[in-house]
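Re: weekly structure request thread

Next one in the queue (413 aa):
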Amino acid sequence: MGIEEITGRIARDLEHLKQYTATPGNGCTRLPFTEEARHAVEYLKELMVESGLEVTIDAAGNVIGVLKGEDEDAPCVMMGSHYDSVYNGGDYDGIAGVICAIEVARLLKEEGIKPKRSFVAVGFCDEEGTRFGTGYFGSGAMLGNRDVEYTKKFCDKDGISIYEAMKEYGLEPEKVSEAAWEKGKIGAFLEAHIEQGPVLDAENIEIGLVDCIVGIQRYMVTVNGRADHAGTTPMDMRMDAVDAATKVISKIADWAREKADGTVATVGYINTVPGGMNIVAEKVEFTVDIRSRNNDNINDIASRIRKALEREVKEFGGTFEIENKLTITPVELSEDMLDIMEEECKERGYTYKRMLSGAGHDALEIGQVLPTVMLFVPSKEGRSHCPVEFTKYSDFAKAAVIMQKLAKELLDK
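Done, posted below.
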């Protein structure tokens, strides 16, 4: 199978998937447990069946296709990514990795290979965490880290819990723990993904071999004050939640700049209540997303945020709550698998570099406990999580052939 034919198949599949968005003409909005997600899953299921895979939808909403090996009990080689998106995101983030996994399965099947162990292609549900403020739902469930109580804990902006959304979607949240795979059944995990950053595109490099994924902690912070009239309440008699919250928020980015190891910190959402121009705010809600290769850096910034909140609310007599939404530690990826992909890049004459991933991926969740590797392809001008996100289909084809080589070696062990 030539690279042009592989490119054509990947292009066909990704072009078809573009239609499954809640915001046509304004990027991809495919949130978990929605009609758009359902249509995407059904199409992925069709592709998997056409590729000769045995397909199931598990209790967490993951779509799974299996190319059976000679020893079905041997630890499988799994490859995939996620099919959900952020609001008004791009057409390649996550979903292209699922299509690459299906393409690898096709290539293995077309070669007539009967692997010693099974190859599994998977499309994970809700990696982004956009709807419920969490993340890695499907991959976490596969590892046994999600249960029915988890589904009741988190809600979307309309107050709909994961539990309610799953039921509306047709899944049974009481059975989500059944999505867990028995320990030892997954031998290795592979993920192809767009870089979502500017490095490969700027340096004109075709393949990024990811050796580490940063850790992430996410928080929802609420600062409580008292609503008052903006004109008649003296400054020294106010319990202004905005005043306290912004004094903390203004320091967070500088704390991240002090660190090394790819440390970043982001306040991406702020909401004031009641939200009137002439009302002193009674409450402020804001999110914090902290990432680094060094987990101590993350913990230190989180600690500084708590101490600063304590100091500011004590000053004006208010209160605060800080809710942890996600904690996941950095993960070093498999050196052995990186070496195999590097050799294949050399063999094919593809330019490559080893690099850090500053974004979290399903590989981050899975890499905590299983041998895992990632491959990046360039993102034009580094743009992602937006409608202009773009990667050439031929770059995905290169990713597929590199990962097929890796999969073949792993399947034969």
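The longest helix spans residues 295-316. Residues 108 and 404 are 7 Å apart (CA to CA).
Next request, please.
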